[in-house]
Amino acid sequence: MRLTRPIAALLAAVCSTVLFASPASAAEGISSSCSGTVVAQDTLWLPGGNQVGRVELWYSSANGGTNCVITHSYLGSRTDGIGAYLWIQDGRNIADASSSYDSYAGGAWISNASGLCVKYKGEVVLDGTVATGGRWGSWGNCG
């Protein structure tokens, strides 16, 4: 079988793309829960001492190491919004926040993060006041 020059060039280009292509991009998304183990959590307090929720950081070794954050509100329908935020040290980040949420936000997850440090934050809003918890000022939980 004889290949014409243009077809041979195209075949060579396709083969080199397949052989030398970069790995698949890391997956991220929003799901109704996190899997794995809770590795950190923080209580969300309003000024004045009212406990209004908690934020949890989860880790699973699945899919190259998956970090996930979920924020729970204790206010039910009285909340004005809930947010869950996750930053990975390599520059990736994801957030799930809405004024229509009344019980939780997240799980906001990013995979292929084994060995990388994270920052995470949870927020619950009541009457315009934001209760915030987590660790968003420094990197940690390097898994």
TrEMBL record:
<keyword id="KW-0732">Signal</keyword>
<feature type="signal peptide">
    <location>
        <begin position="1"/>
        <end position="26"/>
    </location>
</feature>
<protein>
    <recommendedName>
        <fullName>Spore-associated protein A</fullName>
    </recommendedName>
</protein>
